[in-house]
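Checklist before submission:
- one chain only
- standard amino acids only
- sequence pasted in full

Submission:
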Amino acid sequence: MKEASKAQIKLLRKLSQRKYRENEQLFIVEGERAVEQVLENGVIEVESIFVKENKTDSYKQTADCFILSKSIFHELSDTETPQGVIAVCKMPDPVTLEELQKLNSGVIVATDAIQDPGNLGTIIRTASWFGSEALLHGKGTVDVFNPKVVRSTAGATGVLPFISGDLDYLLGELETSGWNVLLLDGNPGAATITSIPKKEKTVLVVGNEANGVSASLITPKRRRTLIPSVRNSKVVESLNAAVALSIALWSVNN
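Returned file contents:
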């Protein structure tokens, strides 16, 4: 197993920034379990693996595996307690709008200005768990391949097809092909999720953590829906965006 070159270390540093990830079409997966899952599921192409010098035995049979010194690894790591392994992976191609329009049934998740990486990662993980067809990644939402997002998906990055773009446009195009849009909205006047008739093709839109769904996305055709609190609790103001989506996905799938 060879030591990582200066050029490889330079690339690893660059991949912490979105513009370089997009230019290179590469992203980082960090952590033993996350890397193991990426290797197992085979959905994402792994270009190379970098291990801390005391972790070489675990990956000595892996092709394109390189050693990083402890000091360099800690510099590159995005976690407080690095697990000693980083994989550089190729970004998957986005799903096309035309492919989604051709679907006869299913649930699509859309994110409107979700800014917390942990929330987006959990949303991707949850949507994958419930068998969602795709993620509509709206403008203002944190990058799907942000290292913290990738870590929060617990290995689900790449499993869920995605498309990025103007959310209002994407929703409008899907509506023309029979998709029903539900806006997760905790404000008064929204219907409870359990009261809305189930449709064969549903898009669930989850809004910004602080401000909810953008006003520009609200139309008469799109139903606003909420997760009702038990006993009208006034202690907690609202649910976390990812938690609300989890409950909504369970509801529309059952």
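Reviewer check: The two ends are 50 Å apart (CA to CA).
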